[in-house]
Amino acid sequence: MEVILIEDVKNLGKKGDVVKVSDGYARNFILPKKLGIEATKQNLHDLKLQKQAEEKRQKELLEEARQLASQLEAVKVNLTLKAGEGGKTFGSISTKEIANALNEQAGFNLDRKKIQLSEPIKSAGTFTVGVKLHPKVTASIKVVVEAV
């Protein structure tokens, strides 16, 4: 029997795959647990339409991410860091502060988890920080840190 998987099934396939399984496995495990549906002509057609809609949505998301990346490339964020005598700084700049400054200074409301910072910034200067907007799109912003 052929079954269209609704959810990922370990050792069988991923969501949206059409797999051939034994009748008993389909009747007793896949169908009752709502892990898949029978691969009828109508269900296969519906699956095809869903895949087309998903592709279209992914293309739109990719295009939006590219546009946002081009806007972010021109952004420069200014932050301050307390410093003592001899230029020794207190504290550090993390992704949370960068995300808040982006929102306040440039109006971009980005999740801090999208900002890629290998380690917190602990010194004054100009830094280039990556922002992962999409699996295929990464932008970079300039962060200027001034010691006060």
From TrEMBL:
Cited InterPro entries: Ribosomal_bL9, Ribosomal_bL9/RNase_H1_N, Ribosomal_bL9_bac/chp, Ribosomal_bL9_C, Ribosomal_bL9_C_sf, Ribosomal_bL9_N, Ribosomal_bL9_N_sf
Coiled-coil segments on the chain, per record: 37-82
Domain (Ribosomal protein L9): residue spans on this chain: 1-46
A single BP term in Gene Ontology: translation
Pfam families the record matches: Ribosomal_L9_C, Ribosomal_L9_N
Gene Ontology cellular-component terms listed: ribonucleoprotein complex; ribosome
Function: Binds to the 23S rRNA.
Family named by the database record: Belongs to the bacterial ribosomal protein bL9 family.
Protein name per Swiss-Prot or TrEMBL: Large ribosomal subunit protein bL9
The organism of origin for this protein: Herbinix luporum
